[in-house]
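step=encode ok
step=design start
structure_in=
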């Protein structure tokens, strides 16, 4: 077996990604041996041992590839020069993520990925030509990758490894959803983030919104993604979502949708007081909001919010959520559309300006705008604004095209943890029916669990 030494091995080599992340890589190569594993090896020194017909996973080999950044892509050259030759690579992973391993070249190869001595995935196909392409969810730590020739194949190959670090937050596994909500999360580096629901075509999510909590992992803050979606379109029952970064899956979840029998319920009203929530002796008032197709937490006594004057001229667009004189609680999305903009910003209470992800597909805007990629969205924890009335302005390249005044109700803290509650709302959506709603911590709100 022969090993092709990577360039600049033993030195810190700089690689530049398509995004703003710059990282460093230290690499070395090791080959399996049936009885001997090198000990205390300098990772800058490639090691060549004798051929072996198996890649052991019950020993701890020396470090072969060290990942020192949240997002990393590089390659190592190797060669299979006999039918029994197997190359083993250990990858040190700093964060949980989705590992993509593939080979390129003319040699027909088979790959296997292990972690904690458990085989995660194995295969000989998926890549270009005769190459394999494997993907597996991995935890921080080390991963072992074996490459061998398929059948009696021999020859050179390139092993390419990349790590996608991100997280699908909503919907969460085994969660309940109803009405209009947002699919959201974060990914350190991507050009396009897509959402696949069941067997529907992929939908592009808005990507690049500010997520301060990802700076320590990603090295920057513009890593959020979100997609506004009417869950009612999926129908009642269990569904699966997958999220893709440039075509590679990095998260999935199975969740349950409850509808009220129609895609968009109009002309109904409903409210209910939930006793002893979030703690004994306290109560919250739930009010139906047609624009969200769901209940939100509203103040005990609501007063009308004064209407705002309409806007004349300016960019062609609309601020859809929050609507004028609406109520908001928990975690939701600011959304709408505008025909043409370089940057869409959302100004809250005249002080905070946040850039929204812009360019998501909105087929309903095609007749007005001449194209359909005009949607914008920004995930926001309304609790951060505090109780009371707030004003939002939507700006396209600094020019206002929409505004609204709305009311936020919190439960006294920014993110309420550790509480659970189910409650029945009677006489909804009509006098002969009732629904059960359940608290969802990830959304910081109640959602419809089922119609009774």
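sequence_out=
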């Amino acid at each position: 077996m022969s090993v092709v030494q990577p360039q600049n091995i033993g030195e810190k080599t700089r690689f530049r990604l398509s995004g703003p992340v710059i990282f460093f890589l230290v690499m070395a190569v090791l080959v399996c041996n049936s009885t001997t594993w090198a000990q205390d090896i300098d990772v800058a020194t490639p090691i060549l041992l004798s051929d072996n017909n198996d890649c052991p996973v019950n020993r701890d080999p020396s470090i072969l590839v060290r990942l020192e950044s949240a997002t990393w892509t590089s390659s190592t050259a190797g060669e299979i020069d006999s039918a029994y030759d197997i190359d083993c690579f250990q990858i040190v992973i700093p964060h949980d993520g989705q590992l993509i391993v593939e080979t390129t070249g003319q040699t027909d190869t088979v790959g296997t990925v292990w972690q904690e001595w458990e085989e995660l995935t194995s295969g000989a196909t998926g890549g270009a030509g005769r190459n394999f392409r494997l993907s597996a969810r991995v935890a921080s730590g080390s991963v072992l990758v074996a490459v061998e020739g398929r059948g009696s194949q021999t020859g050179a190959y390139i092993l390419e490894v990349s790590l996608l670090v991100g997280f699908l937050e909503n919907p969460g596994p085994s969660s309940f959803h109803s009405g209009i909500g947002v699919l959201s999360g974060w990914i350190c580096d991507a050009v396009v983030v897509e959402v696949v629901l069941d067997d529907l075509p992929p939908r592009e999510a808005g990507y690049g919104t500010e997520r301060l909590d990802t700076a320590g992992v990603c090295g920057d803050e513009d890593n959020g993604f979100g997609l506004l979606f009417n869950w009612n379109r999926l129908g009642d029952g269990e569904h699966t979502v997958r999220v893709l970064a440039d075509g590679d899956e990095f998260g999935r979840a199975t969740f349950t949708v409850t509808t009220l029998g129609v895609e968009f319920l109009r002309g109904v009203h409903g409210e209910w007081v939930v006793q002893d929530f979030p703690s004994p002796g306290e109560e919250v008032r739930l009010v139906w909001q047609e624009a969200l197709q769901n209940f939100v937490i509203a103040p005990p006594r609501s007063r009308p919010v004064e209407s705002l004057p309409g806007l004349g001229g300016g960019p062609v667009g609309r601020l859809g959520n929050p609507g004028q004189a609406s109520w908001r609680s928990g975690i939701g999305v600011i959304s709408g559309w505008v025909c043409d903009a370089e940057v869409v910003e959302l100004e809250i209470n005249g002080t905070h300006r946040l850039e929204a992800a812009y360019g998501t597909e909105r087929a309903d805007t095609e007749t007005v705008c001449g194209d359909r990629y005009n949607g914008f969205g920004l995930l926001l924890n309304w609790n951060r604004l505090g109780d009371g009335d707030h004003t939002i302005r939507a700006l396209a390249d600094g020019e206002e095209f929409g505004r609204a005044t709305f009311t936020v109700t919190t439960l006294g803290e920014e993110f309420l943890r550790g509480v659970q509650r189910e409650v029945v709302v009677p006489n909804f959506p009509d006098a002969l029916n009732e629904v059960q709603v359940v608290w969802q911590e990830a959304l910081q709100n109640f959602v419809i669990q089922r119609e009774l």
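step=design ok
step=annotate ok -> The domain at 2-164 is CATH 2.60.120.380 (Jelly Rolls).
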